[in-house]
Amino acid sequence: MTTQKAFDYIIQEYFEAKKKHPTFPHRFGRQLSILIEEVGEVAKEINEWSNQPWDSDDKELEQKLITELAQTGAVIVRMLEDMNKCC
Ligand SMILES: [Mg+2]
Fold first, then answer.
1. What is the whole-number distance in angstroms between the Cα of residue 45 and the centre of ligand 1?
2. Residue 54 pLDDT > 90
3. N or C: which end of the chain has fewer CB within 10 A?
4. Which pLDDT value is given to residue 52?
5. What is the three-class DSSP state of 7?
6. Measured between alpha carbons, how far is 86 from 3 in angstroms, rounded to an integer?
7. Would you list the DSSP string of 17-66?
8. Tell me: the pLDDT tens digits for 56-79?
9. How many A from CA of 39 to the centre of ligand 1?
């Protein structure tokens, strides 16, 4: 995957997250819990993928992992945006 494509995925998830959750908590602790939830979802998808045969070419699992990674990136962007509002 190219760097541009990776950023495209993150941007897409960022705007979907802003639509679904227009407000973002200002407290670092709450933001961190959202980030960790997303990282946990990445781990779950990696585990799902790891349970497949080594030569598996499961595009659905690959897309789920990409989505979770992009959602994690989107949370980080929202945290960065919120730096001046956060406590
Ligand atoms: Mg997720």
1. 10
2. no
3. C
4. 83
5. helix
6. 29
7. HHHH------SHHHHHHHHHHHHHHHHHHHHHHHTS-TT---HHHHHHHH
8. 788 889 999 999 999 999 999 999
9. 8
